[in-house]
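Below: protein 1.
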Amino acid sequence: MTRRPEPAVPPIGRRAVLLGTAGALLGAAGCAGGTRGRPNTAATPTAPAPGSSPAPSNLSGPGTPSPTATPALPRTAPWQVTSAEVHPEVKRRAVALVEAIGAWPDGRGGAPAARARVTALRLPAALVAQAGPLLPAADEAVLQVVDAQYGGILADSASVLVVCRQWTRRGGAVRAGGTTVDVRLARTGTGWTVTDLHPARPGAPAAAPPARVRRVLADSRIVLPPAARADLRSGRVHDSVLTAMLHLAGRYRMYVSVVRSGHPLDVFGTSRPSDHPPGRAFDVWQVDGHAVVDPATPRTLVERFMRDAAATGSYNVGGPVPLSGGSTPDQFFSDATHHDHVHLGFRG
C-alpha cells in the first residue's frame, strides 16, 4: 500500500489459535500484519514435494505386497500470539477461522462439515461459501499458518492477511498447496466477528517466466509462501519488485508474506489504490530468522533492512521503526498496521 506517516507505535510481538477477548483498537489504516504469532521455524512442518505423491506400499514378505498404507500428512502446530501483539484478539479470531475451514480429519471434508466447525466458533456459517481454495475436495487436510499480518486496522474494522500452507490427501495422493486469505473483521458490542473472506487469486502461471522471476524463485534466501510464488509465476509482478528482492537477498535471508494477491485492493480504510495488487509492492515478516514483530529482534536489524529497502528504489517503506531521512519526502513511515512487517512500495 501507499501510506503517509502516521503516529508510530512501539514494536511488539504475536501467536495462538484460541479465541481471545475483545479489546479497544487504535485508529491506523492499513498497508497492503513474547514472539510474533507463527510457528517456530524448527517446528514448521516439512512439505511434501509439490504435486501428488503416491501412497507408499509395504511388503509383508518376499514378493507379497501388503495392503497399501494411507499416506500421512505433515504434523502442524497451532498459530499462537502473545499479549505483546497489537490487539491480539483480532488476529486470534481471523486465524481460528482459517484453521477451522482449512483443516479437517479423515472423512470430515466438504462444506457442511466446515460450516459446523465455523458455527462452533460462533461465526457465520455463510463464510464457508467464500473460502475458495481454502476448502478443496479432499479426504483430510492439515494447515499451517505461516504468518498473520495486518492489512489494516481501525477502531471498528480490520483486515488480517492470513498466510498459510496446506496439505491435503485424496485417496492415496498427498498434495501440497496453500493460499493467503484477507480476513475482514468488524468490532461488535461483544468482541470481534469476521464479516468476509477474500482468498488470494494469483492468476494462471505464465507460459515462460522471465529470467528474473526464475532467479527469485530459485533463491534460497528469498522464502515465498504459496500465493506469493504463484504471483511471481503469473508474470504480473513488476521488475522493480524482483530487482529489490534479489538485491536484498544479497545481504539478508527474508521471508516474504504478501506480494500482490490476498491483499486489499485499496489502502485499508481509504479509497487510495494499494501498490500490492498491481504487483508493485511486497511485505516481509521475517529477516535473518527474526520476526519483525518480535520485541527480541534487534531494532538495528529492522532499521538497517528498512534503509536498505529504500536504497533498492522503494519510495514507500513502512515498518515498526520510525525513521528519519530518506531520499524523497515521507519515504519512511511507521504505524500500528506496520508494526508486524516491513512494506516496500514501488512506483513502477
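Below: protein 2.
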Amino acid sequence: MSMAGNLRKVTGLGGVGGLRRVARLARRRPRVDLSHPARSPLGSSVVNCVMYRDGVRVPECADLVDAVRLVRRSGEGFVWLGLHEPTDHEFAGVAELFDLHPLAVEDAVEAHQRPKLEHYGDTLFAVFKTVCYVEHEQLTATSEVVNSGEIMAFVGKDFVITVRHGRHGSLGPLREELETDPQQLAKGPAAVLHAIADHVVDDYLSVTDAVQADIDQVETEVFSEIGARVDPGRIYQMKRELLELKRAVVPLSRPVEDLATRPIRVVAPEIQAYFRDVLDHLIRAKEQIAAFDELLNSILQAHLAQVTVAQNEDMRKITAWAAVIAVPTMVCGVYGMNFDHMPELRWRFGYPLVMAVMAGACLALYRGFRRNGWL
C-alpha cells in the first residue's frame, strides 16, 4: 500500500493527531495509482506520495509519519508529496508535520503568486507559473491562446512537497521519468526541484514555438492583398495572450539565477550546474517573448498604416469621380437658369454639341485621373 492512500486521510483530519490512525484505514483500501490524474479518484487533493532511498522508490512504506521518521532517523532518502489545489483544512496536517512556515502555506493554498524563491530556515519555497498552449482551429479576437497555472514546491533536506494549481502541468510523467534515472534522483530533493524547473521552462519554449506560428499567420495575412481588412482584434488578442506568457516567464529569471549561482543550503553545488542550463533556456524564452512583443507592435503599426492607405485610396477615387460628375452638373446647371438670351438655345445642333462637350470633358478627366493612379 502506498503512502498516498494514507495521506488522503491525513489531509482530511487536518492535524498530526489523526495521522496515527491512518495505517489501519489504509489496509482496507485497494491500491490506487495516483501518478497522473489531476485529482485523486477518492476526491482529496493528494496526487501521490512516495518515499525514495538511493534514488529508488520504497514501495513497502505504508505510513507517512513512519516514512518521515524513518528518513530522518536514518539520514537517507526523502519523501515526495504531491498535492493538487488543497484547501486550508487539507493542508493543515501536512504543514504541521513538516513544520512549514505559515506565510508559505498561505501562498501555496491561495495561489495566484508571482514566480519567486523564498527561504524559511532550512526550507526552500519556490513558485513556478506553468503555461500551456490552447489549440484552436482559427485565431479570432476572443481566442484563448495561453492558459496558465502554478506549481509551488517546498524543499527541505529530506522532503519535497509540490502543490499544483490549474488543470494542466501534471507532474506524474515527470516523476516517472525521474524514477528511470536513480542516479540523478539519489541527489536528493534539489534534483526534484531542478526537474520541476526544467519541466516548466521546457513548456515555456514549447508554448513560444506555438505562439510564433500564430504570429506568423497573422503577419502573413496583414501583408497580403486583404491586409487592410484583417481584424485588428486578433492582433490585440495575441498581445494580451503574450502578456500572460510574459508574466510567467520574466519574473522567474531572478529565482532561477539565485538557484544557479547563490549558495543555498538545500541545493548542492553539483545541482547548481543543472540550474545554469535551465537559466539558459529561460533566457532564450524571455528573449523570444520580447521579440514577439516588438514584432506584434510592428505588425499592428503596419496594419494601421495599411488601413490609412486604403482609406486614402478610397477618398481619392471618390474625389476623382466627384470631379468627373461635376462637369456635366455645371453645364446642366448653367443651362437650367432660364435666361432668355443664352447661346445656342435655338440652334438645331445645340443639344448634341453640349452633350459632346460634356462627354469629352468627362472622358478627359477620367483619362487624367487614370493615368495618375487615382482611378
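The two ends are 83 Å apart (CA to CA).
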